[in-house]
Amino acid sequence: MDVLPAVHDGSRDHRGHGDRPVRAASPTSQDEKMKWFREAKFGLFIHWGLYAIPAGTWKGQQIAGIGEWIMNRAKIPVTEYEQLAASSTR
């Protein structure tokens, strides 16, 4: 396996997880990609809630703070917020 040497630019270490060197070439086949994914022990969790639909804006107004709190901070009535659930299944 070709690997890049560890490089330090003064800000962070460019080695892989577990101090393994980063691969130089990108895997091309799906099997190679999955093999790399498993060996690198890389994972990604994406959670989409209803708050992702308005994306921080309610009725044309940007709402401060993180999206998960939009219902509370924008004082959105439950009956209106429930409509987001109906629209997300279409």
Major sheet: arrangement of strands: 1-2
Shape: elongated
Share of helix, binned: 25-40%
Distance between the termini: 46 Å
Radius of gyration over C-alpha positions, nearest whole angstrom: 21 Å
In short:
It is built from 3 helices and 2 strands, in the order αββαα. It is mainly alpha-helical.
Overview of this protein structure:
This protein is mostly helical and 90 residues long. It folds into 2 domains: 1-43, no CATH class; 50-88, no CATH class. Helix content is 29%, strand content 4%. The chain contains 3 helices and 2 strands; from the N terminus they run αββαα. The protein has helices at 30-40, 70-73, 78-88; strands at 57-58, 61-62. Strands 1-2 form a two-stranded antiparallel sheet. The longest helix is centred in the middle third of the chain and has 11 residues, at 30-40. The N and C termini lie far apart (46 Å).
